[in-house]
Amino acid sequence: MLVKRLFSILVLTFLLSPLCVNASGDSSAQSEPNVKTEIKEYIGHHLQDSYDFTIWHEYGIGFPLPIILVDEGFHLFMSSKFHHGEAVAESNGKYYKIFHGKIYRTDAEGTIEMDEATHHPSNVKPLDFSITKNVFSIILISILIFWLFRNFAKSYQHSMIPNKKGRLLEPLVVFIRDDIAIPNIGKKSYGQYMPYLLTVFFFIWFLNLAGMTPLGIGVTNNIAVTFGLALITFIITQFTAKKSYWAHIFWMPGVPTPMKVILAPIELLGVFVKPFALMIRLYANMTAGHVVIMSIIGLLYVFNNWFATGAFLGLTLFLSVLELLVAFLQAYIFTMLTALYFGAAAAEHDDHH
Amino acid sequence: MEIPGIVGAGLIVIGAGLGIGKIGGSAMEAIARQPEAANKIQTAMLIAAALIEGIGFAALFAS
Amino acid sequence: MEKLLNDFSVGLFFWQMIVFLVLLFLLKKYAWTAILVSVKAREDKIKEGLEAADKAKEMMRQMKEDNEELLAKARLEREGIIKAAREAKDKMISDAKLKASEEADKVIKSAQEAIKAEKNAAMNEIKTHVAELSISIAEKILKKELAADGKQNELIEAAMNESKLN
Fold first, then answer.
1. ipTM of the predicted structure?
2. The model's pTM
3. Mean pLDDT, residues B14-39 taken together
4. Are A179 and B39 in contact (CB < 8 Å)?
5. CB-based contact, B61 to chain C, within 8 Å
């Protein structure tokens, strides 16, 4: 009962989340004449990482996060020093300013010199290890995941049947084992990959879902995050690969010799293309989902009449439900393809394809 | 006249869309014919669609 | 592509990797192993239970079959016994009947023989009686006839004549 109620609250939150974003964009939309540019900027801003944890931009609801810079020394200060990017922050005798969402080293006045050729600032970019909004969200969600599954795992100590939270999560764990790991990797060696598959699935899924909350934390639509995940998949694939995996890449069995010579570079390229596609797919899907939903909410303000409001709100609702599905589907596909690559690496017999 | 890259990307997206559509359609037919194999068909369909999608995205980002 | 590279945030990548790997390690150590082992254990137990139930069912079935077989056997045996008893009874009765009739025949036969013998004896007795009687009568008659002498010679002469004739 509790789980059911919790679930309905969650669904409601997701469905209403575009409206909340909507409301936050409301006050500024009327004051500015050029609505389209405003919307474009808003979407861009929404997709970008930020140095503060802003919940409601217009009313300044949020809290600052620590900035960590490595620039001829170590710099640690709170992002409140930037005053939401408007002020120049000083740390250990150096001055920094946020320009288009990135930190640059400037002089005391905060001048940004633009490079004419590339249209990028020519200022020095310090190595930025700040706890940004995304990093903060990842940590938060990870703690949530750990707490959930630790609780779930502990509940087995008392009985064979898990607690209520576990009953919701257990089918997913079994689903990953029975429908993703075992068919793709094989009964013999799936065990060693299970922890990674489970972790990556729930990590992506929870972050995707978090991206749909009104908090506006789009973690999985950052290329750095998806690159990290794809990199781990790539490394695990190469390091657990058996002899036949390499044989299939460099000297494909059962093909005529000239074909082997042609296939080798293609297969070798494939080794890198696979995780690359994994990275791009997750990134692009999540980004596209956010952009589409935000754009349709934006259209509400472009047309600005009751008919468009009704129509686009309905469309937003529909797309939000679709995005809920996509959030799961992308986590599933990432895990599935990862398992597929692991399966190719772990295959032992030569006639296996 | 120089053709902008985005046109090529568009072409690839059309191709990818057609491809995924074909996969989806065929999968539906297959499921209708053999509902008991729906799980396996679905998995195969998703993998194939995901692979084509990857190409589509690669094209989009290359443009 | 250029935009992607430009968007790439080293800090985010760094922290993401650290958090993810720590999460992976912690979950592996404190959650996944326990969950997977427990799920597997439960599945095995359910499987075992189902197998045991199947086995018990099979055993029940076997037992029932055995019982039925036994019952059928017993029924057959009973029928055999009853049949044999009936046959024995029938045989006994028929034997007894046969013996009785034989005895009766024997008795009747001996009775008849006895009657016959008695009859014969009686006949013989009567015959001797009659013979004796007739002899005595004949004697008395002869005595009376032959009391005169002439008569005796006459008789001898008659007898002599008769023998001459022969």
1. 0.82
2. 0.74
3. 91
4. yes
5. yes
